[in-house]
Amino acid sequence: MDKKNALRAGAVVAGTTLMMLLMTSPVLAVTRDDGDDPGPGLTIGETLGLYVAAPLLLFAVIAGLVMVLDKSRKQPGV
């Protein structure tokens, strides 16, 4: 019985994946839409800053605030 359910689940996942791949054809990305204005591309430095440095900096700020404002630590002398 378990083998039958696993086979059915695999078929559903494979079918869903195939349908998603067919519906999101990259050929449609070549055609420009009316009013489409992509603008200039990003340089390598801008891309790394936007997608690597900014998230790391944001993570560090949030982690620092959590550590500084953590009240679960025992206060010395209390």
Write structural notes for this entry.
- This protein is mainly α.
- Helices cover 60% and strands 0% of the residues.
- The longest helix is centred in the last third of the chain and has 25 residues, at 44-68.
- The chain is flat, with a radius of gyration of 25 Å.
- The N and C termini lie far apart (61 Å).
- The model has no long low-confidence stretch (mean pLDDT 86).
- Keywords: Membrane, Signal, Transmembrane, Transmembrane helix.
- Residues 1-29 form the signal peptide.
- This is Secreted protein.
Secondary structure elements and pairings:
Layout: H1 2-23, H2 44-68
Organism: Streptomyces niveus
Protein name: Secreted protein
Signal peptide: 1-29
Brief summary:
This is Secreted protein. Residues 1-29 form the signal peptide. The protein is an all-alpha fold.
Rg for CA atoms: 25 Å
Number of strands: 0
Broad structural category? mainly alpha
Question: On the 0-100 scale, what is the average pLDDT?
Answer: 86
Give the overall silhouette: flat
What is the number of helical segments per DSSP (H or I, 4+ residues)?
Answer: 2
Question: Helix and strand string, N-terminal first?
Answer: HH
Sheet having the most strands: none
Which percent range describes the beta-strand content? Answer: under 5%
| Helicity range | 55-70%
Distance between the termini: 61 Å
Which segments are poorly predicted (pLDDT under 50) over 5 or more consecutive residues? none
